[in-house]
## 1
Amino acid sequence: MEKKYNKVLILGGTGFLGYYVLGSLDKADFDMAIMLHRKKDDLNIPFEGYSVFEGDVLKPETLKEAMDKFKPDVVINMVGSFKADPKRIFVDSIKNVVSVSQEAGVKKIIYISDLMARSDKSNAYLNARREAEKELQKSALDWTIFRPTTLFGWRANFTNVLKKQIEGIYPVLIPASKYKLQPMAAQSLAESITAASFGDLGNFKIYEAVGPQTLTPKDIAGRLKLSLNSDRKILVVPIFILKLFSFLKKIGFPTHISSSYVYVFQNKVLGDPEELQKDFNIKQIKFDPAEDHLLY
């Protein structure tokens, strides 16, 4: 694939997916910069090989400083949080990114959204996600939007919660089989994002970033158990029991069930992987922990 662009600025790149995206961009020999919300001395990640700027997507002047100095062709926006005000962290921030990018001569923005944005559910988080997508779509820039499902890979919170349960002393708690997931390898999504950064591939499209298999919670927990050579018992419980345990965790009860663990099962919808696969022709990795030594 011929590379049209070479300079990429990454926003929100210090999280789980960012680790894979930075690696994939580096392998493709991009000139990279990352903008950090926190001082780099506070982050336990390597920064060799690319430019680093301290800033905040909610402060346009810091975005402008980074873009004026680095002059990126492409901006990859992975900024996200379940704790911050959704309208500020998604809508206000994308408005800033779009405005400053247009002034700075950026050619393309790649935005990482959420598969749940395609659902008919309405809450502050999802409404902000949809509004942010619309803000980008009405801009004068080229854009590509990825809507990922649950991602797996090294340091993935979702699989680590299950792993901790399996290695604990209590049974593993999972919801019923109706809560199906299509887990996708973070590496596969990172390779798609990198391919979209090359140039025109994926322009003006929204992709459902889902894995090649539809699995039940029991399938997922069972495969993790097998990889850990464990005989830990698995209990199927109503979703309200998981919510109760996530509440108890917040007040100090020794459980591994978190609110994000419950969210993954309760709110994820199923998507269609065909468009992503057709356009990017990536290697889809099946959820097989026994074969993936980087899963944990």
## 2
Amino acid sequence: MPVYEFRCLKCKTEFERLCRLSEPIPACPQCGGEVEKCLSRFGLQSGGKTVTSTGSGSCASCHGGNCSTCGS
């Protein structure tokens, strides 16, 4: 099962959850509010160098880290 990153739309709490793609999106563990799925930050190692993706929630189409604009 993959690990997904979420951010609460109400209190901005960020958390990770191990879940299947078919499972419903969980509620915020802090306030119970609605959450959005975020782009995950990941790292790759190649030739002894570590390369990290763009930060969580950051891509060319995001403005202010709004994951919903990325369609994730």
## 3
Amino acid sequence: MQSERSGRRFRTGQGLIHFLLLAIVFCPQRSFAETKVVTDADKGGDVQMKVGDKLEVRLKSNPSTGYMWYLHPKSTALLKLSGEKHADATDQPTGQPTDQSTQPAVGRPILQVFTFEPRRKGDGILLLRYVRSWEKPALGEEQFTLHVVIE
């Protein structure tokens, strides 16, 4: 009787392991997510993504002059802003993000690194503005646009 029970438990355990292996192999695309990186050079371009991917937008700014990039209120609702970090644009050629508490030297440019996650399928325009936060929007303000297609 004991060996019969232990045999069932062993088979149940094996079945559970097989199930977990199959779940890993056939897991949703989120585990195979890709991070798309765009920069100033991609302004006005297109990017294709899948639900589960991430979009990283790296733009140069100079906060010591008051100018920073901000997400425009009319930007597509398909993307959710999930983070923003700063990187020193002069010391780090790869632009690795640093903690926001790290203050760049006055007058030195930085990279603002925005991270977005797609909410659902569709296409829209990501829109960022380069402005001083205390000034009213002007007609000639610099903007970064990117056509985003989420599959």
## 4
Amino acid sequence: MDSTMSLALDLTYPAVSMLTGRAFNDSIRNTFGVDLQIEDLWIPYFAVSTDITMQKKAVHRSGTVWR
């Protein structure tokens, strides 16, 4: 986050999350680029997230790195 103001602008209703994540996603996108794919990384990588709709874990082994 660049400043307190940008953090304040990133707020959303707390039904699911306090922040939209737009600023975080922008910084990740700027760091890794839009086209870099997980499967193209030199070191094997995966990420685990939670699908709150299906109430299951999701393992990500392909797709764009920033997403």
